[in-house]
Amino acid sequence: MKDKKIAILIPCYNEVLTIGEVVEDFKTKFPQADIYVYDNNSIDGSGDIASQAGATVVSEYMQGKGFVVRSMFRDIDADCYIMIDGDGTYPAEDTVEMAQIILDKKADMVIGDRLSSTYFLKNKRIFHSFGNRFVRFLINKIFKSNVKDIMTGSRAFNKRFVKTFPALSKGFEIETEMTIHALDKKFLLKEVPTNYKNRPDGSMSKLNTYSDGIKVIWTIFTLYKDYKPMSFFGLISVGLFLISMGLFIPIFEEFWVTGLVPKFPTLIVSIGIGIASVMALVCGVILDTIKKYSDQNFELFLRIIEKE
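Below the sequence we write its predicted structure tokens.
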């Protein structure tokens, strides 16, 4: 590990009570690493504390964790990247194993799994715990995976993942986007159980249970559409087809018996929904073909950057 370049990436927004301790903790565990704190418009002096603790402080003026991650990944070159929240909820000692897995080339991204460790014991916010379980269920169901912690803020990456991840999210939904991107592009994932600690008294979480939860669900919805268009539009097509048949069959039965079609408006609606079903299926086929070409281009792009 001493011969490798390790970058510790710490997004920070108003974490004056914890950021200094987080930097010191990582300096102890990774004395050879470069520690970067990206200060996202803090107004409590967090950047000054981080700088005094020995970190390189970079200002990110676009508000939101997604913008911070985009800048981090764009600006920094390293063999191993460790991303950790600045709130002191993840101990540095648990990331040593994660970094070693990356440096041993056993994974492209290592996830610090809170949910199999102490998260549900320490976190008393019922809706946050429910949200983590629900998001995990949705993604594992859609992408046929078995990731235990989707939204953890403790992760390690190799350079290949960092330099090919197209960060699009603006806020805390960025972790969900990372996980889905890794699953879709067949990056090798590993999970390491990590302890989770509560914030100290006086330190406030920036998460809003409801608004951020809606953003995460919307991110899953849109990425499902983008990454699995045949499945997405296929489900829509099947649903519309069933509705169309539900309206059409009674009319057809009556026509079969009497030779009359007394419900023309219903017949027209059923035919319209049936046409929409076919159109959804055609959209799915076209977009799935485009997606496959996109995947092929991505694989070729990976080969190019690995040769550089």
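The two ends are 22 Å apart (CA to CA).
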